[in-house]
TrEMBL record:
InterPro entries: D-isomer_2-hydroxyacid_DH (IPR050223), D-isomer_2_OHA_DH_cat_dom (IPR006139), D-isomer_DH_NAD-bd (IPR006140), NAD(P)-bd_dom_sf (IPR036291). Its EC number is 1.1.1.215. PANTHER family: 2-HYDROXYACID DEHYDROGENASE YGL185C-RELATED, 2-HYDROXYACID DEHYDROGENASE-RELATED. This is 2-ketogluconate reductase. GO terms for molecular function: gluconate 2-dehydrogenase activity; glyoxylate reductase (NADPH) activity; hydroxypyruvate reductase [NAD(P)H] activity; NAD binding. One of its GO terms (cellular component) is cytosol. It comes from the Bacteria. Keywords: NAD, NADP, Oxidoreductase.
Amino acid sequence: MTASASSPHVLMTGAYPEWDMAPMQASYTLHRLWEAPDRAAFVAAHAADIRAIATKGELGADAALIASLPRLELVACYGVGTDAIDLAACRARGIRVSNTPDVLNGDVADLAVGLTLALQRSIAAGDRFVRSGAWADGPMPLATRVFGQRIGIAGFGRIGSTIARRLSGFDVEIGYFSRTPKAGSPNRHFESLAAMAGWCDVLIVILPGGEATRGIVDADVLRALGPQGWLVNVSRGSTVDEAALLQALASRSIAGAALDVFLNEPRIDPRFAALDNVVLTPHHGSGTGQTRRAMGELVRRNLEAHFAGRPLVTPVV
Ligand code: 8YV
């Protein structure tokens, strides 16, 4: 089924899974930006009709794209992070913005815990060890115990507190870094990220991306984490000073890192792949079929609410 001629025009910045494309196509006149050989010409050709952008966390909508769409009313984001959307430009023009919070908390938290285990218990390295046949030549190096450690969570919003809940079964001590202490939390609050990095064995980063957190995990924080300290990043590549991290990993001034996010995804710095003290995953925090379906549904519910003149289901702006 395709939309009728009068259905609202929506610019999609990237493909959604096919189970989302079919209902989107049934309700809207879709313009597929990622298929356009000349993006500027494509946007200019449809600008007079487009009333909404359906984007993704990593693609967002920048000031130039927003400025080129005079009839834009809504930016609907498939993803919770809106750091790639120019929210100020949207506010200035009264353009609404929605995202997909909550439905992905459990998955991102599971991956954060899984990466911590994979990193310290050498699960990915163990898999390589068995597959390569190296086991026949002797045992693999010993790993690091997970239970009994101190784990610091940087960012204690919906996902950060879900990570703490997951970890509460692991017999670890949990601290967190956030602007304000969370009322009722049994965990230790830190006002300084470097102070928490000095306290913890594992630093899990789940801060929102954007200017306020750019490079917040810097050389000082990595120094405080130290040669016995581990970094797990499931937030945005931008929260970490990547040059400082690569240097700390190569010189073993931190023990290792598990990274789901990077600068310049998906063409990440090739130096990561050459390191043996990292576990790398392709920005897959929300990457399960169940959660991606829920995210797609939430995007559609927001579009539907907007075009029916109702309040957004999960508004950002
Ligand atoms: C991505 C994410 O949006 O929710 C976020 O902020 O980073 C992810 O869920 C996902 O890659 C969808 O494209």
